[in-house]
Amino acid sequence: MTNILAPIENVLTALLEWLHTAIGLPWAWAIIALTLIVRVAILPLILKQVRSMQRLQIHAPELKAIQQKYKHDKQKMNEEVMKFYRENKVNPMASCFPILLQIPIFFALFFVLRDFDEEVYPNYPDSDLGWLNLVPSITENINTHWSGWLLLVVYVGSQLASVISMPLTDPRQRYIFLALPFVIIPFVINFPIGLMLYWSTTNLWAVGQGYITRRLVPKPQPPPKRSSRTPPKEPAPAEAAPAAPDSGSTPAKAAGTGQQRVRRRKKKKKGPRARR
């Protein structure tokens, strides 16, 4: 992994040295500045993530209906769900892209700080490794000083706040993200304090960024509601009107002719019995 991350390590080392020498930042503040630079660089991806999650939240009822309809056919359900994502331009993996992008930077910075005493600090022997009179040295492990535990508490709290503010539609996904910071605590307590400083700064930035972007990024318009009612049928063509009377006959003549026909029918019905 060290060989794979070597290019990123070289960039981070050069950037840290530039922030320390050119701008005059102590190493701890250089790590914080590096964090802000990384977050600004992936800001377009974050905005895309927010829009995708908003669209997913709007279409959640339709997606749930598809899953309910094909719950007995997993293959068909997956096909319909993917088709639904394509038609509505929703990327369910958008929320993972920023995290995946930061993982190589996280590990590369870990290797930079791990070898900091041997590769970087000898070139700047008089530089300060502390931070705000709290952190004695950014190269010490988290479990060796109370400031490391303090940063760990800040990290967990900021991670929880970031997850709570995320517009997640799946409760299981929210539970996983809420449990994640507690699961990784046993693995990170042996990391350098400078790495936890980077991680805590990242989470605090994410909380503020989520609060701002949700108010600045307009939510997409919800899709039009589909009605189950069938459209009204077109009116049937009007029946042909009765033929108009001859122009030579008047209404009075027409009425008289009708009365004569009625009298004739009555006479026929009487027949010979009437004569008796």
Report the count of strand segments: 0
The chain-level structural class is mainly alpha
Question: What is the chain-wise order of helices and strands?
Answer: HHHHHHHHHHHH
Net shape: elongated
Q: What is the helix tally?
A: 12
Global Rg: 40 Å
Structure notes:
The chain is mostly helical. The protein has a domain at 6-55 and 93-216. The protein has helices at residues 6-21, 27-41, 43-58, 60-69, 74-88, 97-114, 116-120, 146-165, 171-183, 185-188, 193-216, 251-275. Helix 4 (60-69) packs antiparallel against helix 5, helix 6 (97-114) runs antiparallel to helix 11 (193-216) and helix 8 (146-165) runs antiparallel to helix 9.
Briefly, what is this?
The chain has 276 residues and is an all-alpha fold.
SSE layout and pairings?
Layout: H1 6-21, H2 27-41, H3 43-58, H4 60-69, H5 74-88, H6 97-114, H7 116-120, H8 146-165, H9 171-183, H10 185-188, H11 193-216, H12 251-275
